[in-house]
Amino acid sequence: MSTPISTEGTICGTLFIVAAPSGAGKSTLVNALLEREPAISLSVSHTTRPPRPGEQYGRHYYFVERGEFEREVGEGIFLEHAEVHGNFYGTSRKTVQDLLGQGRDVLLEIDWQGAAQIRRTKPDCVSVFILPPSRTELERRLRGRGSDSAEVIERRLRNSRGEIAHAHEFDYIIVNDRFEDALDGLQAIVQAVRLRTALQCQRHEALIRELLAGG
Ligand SMILES: Nc1ncnc2c1ncn2[C@@H]1O[C@H](COP(=O)(O)OP(=O)(O)OP(=O)(O)O)[C@@H](O)[C@H]1O
Ligand SMILES: Nc1nc2c(ncn2[C@@H]2O[C@H](COP(=O)(O)O)[C@@H](O)[C@H]2O)c(=O)[nH]1
Questions:
Q1: Which numbered ligand comes closest to the C-alpha of 174?
Q2: How high does pLDDT run on average in the chain?
Q3: CATH classification at residue 133
Q4: Where's the Guanylate kinase-like domain (predicted)?
Q5: Residue ranges making up the domain that contains 183
Q6: Which of 106, 178, 183, 214 is 20 to 30 A removed from 98 (C-alpha atoms)?
Q7: Nearest to residue 118, comparing CAs of 198, 45, 10?
Q8: How far is ligand 2, taken at its centre, from the CA of residue 118, in Å?
Q9: 22 lines ligand 1 (CB under 6 A)
């Protein structure tokens, strides 16, 4: 495995991806992870979805009109973008590249289509798929959240089968049954990846020094 180097020659951070069917608990887990691991930067996506009550522009999403989103796609500002549950979502290329280049770990909360696009250009990314413990519990969580209309919930539940079918493409799968266990699992993945990257960097640095010193 390679050590990711930015264009400035500094060691890059790691790109983490967390995906899940709607309602599995991805955002709740990610927010709790960020409290435990505040050095990770969460990328704020652009979306054409209307804001839910309480959602803020720039904090939860950059909410944009469809025309503006299409213009941004044309300008190539997205690292990945996809249509999910009838709305469009995209990740800012510049934000992610700037943060990684500064050596920061970045987390993307995106769907499986976006994850597949990112793997093609950033094969060193680390991807995690969150599963609900059962379909009944997924539906209970979606309805219990109280943020979407019955029609939107039905659509998301219908789409969940197609999303879960891609779980095996991810590096890790976590079942979000008991919340604290799932959170511990997610944090363990992040910590293990960081340790591996640090050890690789040390080995590469040692080899570079040895090769430069040799006659
Ligand atoms: N382990 C858990 N046990 C019980 N409830 C949970 C658990 N994890 C999350 N929840 C609840 O399930 C609901 C859905 O969680 P959340 O909004 O994080 O889902 P999501 O996967 O991010 O969905 P979406 O993709 O639609 O944004 C929330 O009300 C959350 O509090
Ligand atoms: N491919 C992308 N998917 C994204 C992005 N931001 C969010 N999402 C995914 O969309 C669904 C629905 O999200 P919601 O906020 O409307 O519930 C969920 O799976 C998100 O992970 C993105 O930038 N790209």
A1: 1
A2: 94
A3: 3.40.50.300
A4: 13-191
A5: 15-43+103-213
A6: 183
A7: 45
A8: 14
A9: yes
The span from the CA of 129 to the CA of 119, in Å, is 14
137-158 mean pLDDT: 95
Q: Indicate whether 72 belongs to any domain.
A: no
Cβ–Cβ under 8 Å, residues 111 and 18: no
| Ligand 2 pocket check for 163: Cβ under 6 Å | no
Q: What is the ipTM of this complex?
A: 0.98
Sheet holding 46-47, edge to edge: 62-63, 46-47, 87-92, 78-84
Nearest residue by C-alpha to atom 10 in ligand 1: 25
Given the CA of residue 182, which atom of ligand 1 is nearest to it?
1
End-to-end CA distance of the chain: 27
Nearest to 69 by CA among 45, 53, 85, 51: 45
The number of distinct structural domains making up the chain is 1
Residue with the two structure tokens 């944009």: 64
Q: How far is ligand 1, taken at its centre, from the CA of residue 38, in Å?
A: 21
Q: Is residue 66 part of a domain?
A: no
- pLDDT, one tens digit per residue, over 56-113 is 999 999 999 999 999 999 999 999 999 999 999 999 999 999 999 999 999 999 999 9
Atom of ligand 2 nearest to the CA of 87: 16
36 inside domain: yes
d(CA 212, CA 215): 8
